[in-house]
Amino acid sequence: MAGTSSFVKKLSNSVKKVSESKSSSWWYNHHMRAASRAISQRIPLVDFVLEVRDARIPVSSQYGQLRYFPSSSRNIIILNKMDLASHSKTKEWMAYFKEQNCIPYAVNSHNKDNIKEFLNFLQAKVRDLRRNTHFSNTQTTTVMIVGIPNVGKSAFANSLHQIGRITAAEKGKLKQAKVSPHPGETKDITSLKIASHPNVYILDTPGILPTEIVDIERSSKLALTGAIADSLFDQPELAQYFLSILNLSHEYKRWEKISGESELDEKEDRTMNDHTQDLVVRAVRRALFEEISAFKGNLEDEKDMVQLIEAQFTTLRKVFNVNSDSFEAANSIVATKLINLYRTGRLGHYTLDSLQGM
Ligand SMILES: Nc1nc2c(ncn2[C@@H]2O[C@H](COP(=O)(O)OP(=O)(O)O)[C@@H](O)[C@H]2O)c(=O)[nH]1
Ligand SMILES: [Mg+2]
User: Fold this and answer.
1) 172 shares a domain with 101
2) CATH of the domain at 58
3) Which structural domain, as residue segments, surrounds residue 106?
4) Residues 304 and 161 in one domain
5) Which of 21-25, 101-105, 237-241, 275-279 has the least mean pLDDT?
6) 228, CA 20 to 30 Å: which among 30, 176, 186, 294?
């Protein structure tokens, strides 16, 4: 994307610096190596593989290990976090994957209705499989969830387990897979029951990154969406990258109406119960909208973009009420807060992977 490229370059330079300071592949740690082996051994043994991807980056969040297995009707691509992606772009990506003879399914793991619909879809697949193969009536079906870190595998597994048709007694002792905003929190393969008679179990697995990511734009997107640990990236650079995307999109235009009254104009806001958080979100949107609207430069020009982003940082320091002695420390706090708002969907819906050139 023109206009964001210098920010991708800057980010990738810091990525390189980190990687040079570590002896081997720095984001592919020994946990991932061990887990990757365990997952690969199980793939041929399970009945279905659900590859969870991030709907904001349907290609960049691909789970590389699957290329060693023949693609089949037992593999389903889950585009999770659809609530954070552009709705129209998700539709286009769904059509693209269907054209490629894949089975895509877009969900928001926090949405009960989405999960119910997916369970029905999966149950139909399970019934087909049972009809067409030599399954005995008592045999268990196993479904393994795989994917890169932080795409919502554990959240998805938990929701399927909670909403799945299992007996009341079993519901009483519901297990939980650990869900966390930080990547790398799932360390073991966990089995959760999602249906009874016949039994269907889901296996949640740790997230695995590619051993090497050569494409610098891809690593920037993985960093922004949270698949790679934040400690490996400079937060202001990550926030600048995000702002360059926001400034070139049309999302901010939806914030024009924000006038400062307490009346909320967006559906997502009504579900937010933290009033202070509401006010901060509105103030951030208003500040970003006003900075972009007042800006007279050409955003395709990198120098102009840098200037706008600097102005946005200055305003955001006030909005977030950051008083720090050091300029760097203040910017780092602003960046972390801004990225957090983006990742929880408060600053618009962006699909970062483009279908062009596919
Ligand atoms: N907005 C949104 N957030 C999600 C969704 N699924 C998971 N998350 C959040 O994404 C983060 C990572 O989820 P987790 O299940 O731990 O990811 P995992 O590393 O793939 O197991 C957590 O903060 C979840 O609450 C979703 O569909 N929409
Ligand atoms: Mg997990």
Assistant:
1) yes
2) 3.40.50.300
3) 28-204
4) no
5) 21-25
6) 176
Whether 339 has a pLDDT exceeding 80, the answer reads yes
Q: How far is the CA of 202 from the centre of ligand 2 (A)?
A: 13
Q: Residues with Cβ < 8 Å from 170, sequence gap 6 or more?
A: 193, 196
What is the spatial distance between Cα 147 and Cα 152, in angstroms, rounded to a whole number? Answer: 9
pLDDT band of residue 262 (cuts 50, 70, 90) is: very low
How far apart (Å, rounded) are the C-alpha atoms in residues 133 and 193? 22
Q: Which atom of ligand 1 is nearest to the CA of 181?
A: 23
Residue 180 lies in a domain: yes
The closest of 272, 118, 252, 297 to 194, measured between CA atoms, is: 118
Q: Are residues 103 and 237 in the same domain?
A: no
Determine contact, residues 88/106, Cβ cutoff 8 Å. Answer: no
Q: What residues does the ion ligand 2 have nearby, CB within 5 Å?
A: 153-154, 186
Q: Where among 204, 228, 249 does a domain terminate?
A: 204
For residue 29, the CA-to-ligand 2 centroid distance in Å is 16
Give the model's pLDDT for residue 132. 82
- Residues near 261 by beta carbon (within 8 Å), at least 6 away in sequence: none
Ligand in closest contact with the CA of 149: 1
Q: How far is the CA of 189 from the centre of ligand 2 (A)?
A: 9
pLDDT in tens, 180-230: 999 888 889 999 999 988 899 999 999 999 887 778 889 889 999 999 988
Do 286 and 187 fall into the same domain? no
Residue with CA nearest ligand 1 atom 9: 152
Which of 170, 204, 238 is where one domain is finished?
204
